[in-house]
Design a protein that fits this description.
This protein is mostly beta strands and 172 residues long. The protein has a single domain, classed as Jelly Rolls (Sandwich).
Length: 172
């Protein structure tokens, strides 16, 4: 059996698959390059990824709800939004994002004009994943075929606004 060890320098970060990549105006703001580490090491209950952000970009919308996340800043100095506040972050910082609502929603932003931001993201893999996006009033539900692959296109994914959801009995 291969040792369950990988050095961050050995990873090759990739953009989202075309099927789930940001489009339109969102593509201008969101452009993470992601190295999925967990499947490479055989992890099953935690997802770990190396995220690389270009100057001025974000990895994901301001979000949170079910899964607990932890971020470790590997390289650079930037900003994290948590709830209603923004905080400076730098290499060596550990950021905790326990489960919860809009008051602890989070988003890491590369506020630089020239340098890449690199951070390690670790999260629990509770499925189904339920996400709240306070900036837009959207919610999402994801049921992945493989827990460590929640960025994949396999499984069931739905995004909606609560006010636009169907009545339970509609169409029955």
């Amino acid at each position: 059996m291969k040792a369950p060890i990988v050095n961050l320098d050995a990873l090759d970060s990739q953009p989202f698959p075309e099927e789930i990549a940001p489009t339109g105006e969102a593509a201008e703001r969101y452009a993470p390059r992601i190295s999925q580490i967990a499947p490479r090491l055989g992890a099953r209950k935690l997802r770990y990824s190396l995220i690389v952000l270009a100057p001025g970009k974000r990895a994901f919308p301001f979000h949170h709800r079910v899964n607990e996340e932890m971020f470790f800043v590997v390289e650079s100095e930037r900003e994290v939004r948590i709830g209603g506040a923004s905080h400076a972050i730098r290499a060596g910082d550990v950021i905790a994002c326990p489960p919860g609502g809009a008051d602890i929603a989070h988003q890491i932003v590369d506020t630089s004009a020239q340098d890449l931001l690199r951070y390690l993201a670790v999260s629990t893999q509770q499925l189904p994943e339920v996400v709240e996006y306070p900036d837009t009033g959207r919610h999402a539900v994801l049921v992945a075929d493989e827990p460590a692959q929640t960025v994949s296109t396999k499984g069931f994914r739905a995004a909606f606004r609560v006010g636009n959801s169907l009545d339970y009995w509609e169409g029955e």
